[in-house]
């Protein structure tokens, strides 16, 4: 079969297998009373990516959405320019591998793979090439957020985290619009969860300009860069931020909200974009009120 000309495949989607596996395993444990009880532990599987028969990297993952994970990983690594450039993504758990084939050879692949950064992601993420390349070209839209809507969104997201509630040991990420969760992904590392959502957005041509990205993990440089590459202007987390994540958020104009849980949050960048319309009552300690 002759290759499809690039001009004819701008809307063509890659062929994907459907090899998602269960996220948790039932195991017996002994509790603090010496009793045997059944519990659950999160899955952790190795998946080695082969790009045009070349071994690239091994990801550790739950394995629930491997095709979207790999698609998003390729996007966020900027190894493939367009989803339509990919012919197929084929996962084979017997060999713990995924074969990615593209329609054409990838320009500059050796240079991109020659530089590797091990990030602070859980289990250590990996970024190929210069992390800062192309950031100056990112233009994020200006947004306006109401404090009350942030609280509504957090309440909605609390209904998820299914694997965490069942087995622990995972991070979750969500693609949100206003107060609605549009896609929630859990994995053993937050970098995997964000890549799976990036793959979902890429596959379905979803714009990030009117979205909010939520993560249970730290707001590191890797997280800020990936979310900015997805075109999402707001990054929300129940955890804290790192210095480099903060500096890059300022550089790119990402609204950075951390420690978001219940009625509490800290805006480290972009507070001018937030309408504080639901300020909670301050709880004054007894020592401060005593006469």
Automatic annotation (TrEMBL):
Keyword Cytoplasm tagged: yes
MF-aspect GO terms: sulfur carrier activity; sulfurtransferase activity
Protein location: Cytoplasm
UniProt keyword Oxidoreductase present: no
Pfam families membership: FdhD-NarQ (PF02634)
Keywords tagged on the record: Cytoplasm, Molybdenum cofactor biosynthesis
Catalytic residue list: 122
BP-aspect Gene Ontology terms: Mo-molybdopterin cofactor biosynthetic process
GO cellular component, one term: cytoplasm
UniProt family annotation: Belongs to the FdhD family.
Function: Required for formate dehydrogenase (FDH) activity. Acts as a sulfur carrier protein that transfers sulfur from IscS to the molybdenum cofactor prior to its insertion into FDH.
Protein name: Sulfur carrier protein FdhD
Originating species: Cocleimonas flava
């Amino acid at each position: 079969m002759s290759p499809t000309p690039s001009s004819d495949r701008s809307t063509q989607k890659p062929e994907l297998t459907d090899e998602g596996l269960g996220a948790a395993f039932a195991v017996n444990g002994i509790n603090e009373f010496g009793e045997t009880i059944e519990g659950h532990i999160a899955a952790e599987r190795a998946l080695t990516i082969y790009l045009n028969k070349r071994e690239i990297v091994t990801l550790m993952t739950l394995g629930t959405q491997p095709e979207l994970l790999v698609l998003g990983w390729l996007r966020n690594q900027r190894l493939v320019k367009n989803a339509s450039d990919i012919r197929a993504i084929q996962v084979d758990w017997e060999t713990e591998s995924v074969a990615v084939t593209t329609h054409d050879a990838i320009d500059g692949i050796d240079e991109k793979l020659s530089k590797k950064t091990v990030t602070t992601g859980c289990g250590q993420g990996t970024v190929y090439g210069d992390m800062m390349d192309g950031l100056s070209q990112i233009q994020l839209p200006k947004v306006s957020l109401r404090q009350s809507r942030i609280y509504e969104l957090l309440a909605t997201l609390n209904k998820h985290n299914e694997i965490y509630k069942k087995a622990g040991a995972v991070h979750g990420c969500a693609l949100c619009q206003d107060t609605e969760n549009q896609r929630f992904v859990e994995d053993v590392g937050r970098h995997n969860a964000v890549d799976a959502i990036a793959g979902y957005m890429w596959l379905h041509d979803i714009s990030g300009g009117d979205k909010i990205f939520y993560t249970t993990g730290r707001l590191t440089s890797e997280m800020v860069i990936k979310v900015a590459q997805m075109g999402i202007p707001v990054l929300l987390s129940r955890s804290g931020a790192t210095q480099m994540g903060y500096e890059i958020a300022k550089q790119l104009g990402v609204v950075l909200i951390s420690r978001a849980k219940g009625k509490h949050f800290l805006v480290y960048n972009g507070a001018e974009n937030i309408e504080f319309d639901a300020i909670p009552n301050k709880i004054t300690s007894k020592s401060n009120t005593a006469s």
